[in-house]
Amino acid sequence: MRIGITGIHGLIGSKIAPLLAKKHTLIPLSKREGFDLLNEKSVLQGIEQNDLHYVLHLAAYTNVDEAEKQKALLLESEAWKINVLGARYVAQATSRKNIKLIHVSTDMVFGKDEKDFFDEKSTPAPVNFYGLTKYEGEKEAQKNNSSSAIVRIAYPYTFSAEKKDYVRVFLGYLKENKSFSSVADCFYTPTYIEDIAISIDAIIENDITGIIHSTSGEKLSGFEIAQIIAEKFKFDKNLVSKTTRKEFFKDRAPRAYNTALENTVLNKYGVKLHTLNETLSFMPKDLLKNE
Question: Per the domain annotation, does 252 fall within a domain?
């Protein structure tokens, strides 16, 4: 398949592109190639001229706290323009050329409702402005392209990126024998970034549309994640103390108590993604050494 990818140079795109390229021909759709997500004509031209079967829309405004500061601007905010208008333009352009769309979203479309897990049929109710823009982006994708697949991920992590995510930050503290605190009352389902490529392949091979959740399928807090890492590599678990959302996210965008996602759709197709503990076994040994 020929797949156009927005956000290919970002954290997720740069990690899953080499994996997808083993089976598919990938066409970058980014500013480096003259693709302007906020210019409707540019989006249409970029998608029309590449003879694509799919577009994987990864590009997004993802800074949760900065997005919250833009809340009063609403439609004029950068977060809204990128996550909602950009999604609309991509969906309209792909639909016009009968190209299938895979639109990547987030667990943060949930949060107001109290549930143990949210499946693909659960109704979104975000608690912050970022989550709202991503939910509105989902609606734009579905409204404007009837063959769209909405893939929700949560708290992505990897072991091979230059920028450290929360898993490697926790590991760094533990290696250095430093005490730190982690939130114990905020639950989610971590996503191993490389597993997203598995989900994308399954969606393409099985021609899946609609809402799809792509996560580890386990409900964990940041505190529990830190404890799992410590136990896995035999670090001192007492280095990790508990804190609360109220304290940790003080003066920042609100976070939900729980946004844990259940992978109901992928499970039906026999697609099993890795748990956190399983992925820790993939960690390169040099990351365990003191820097």
Answer: no
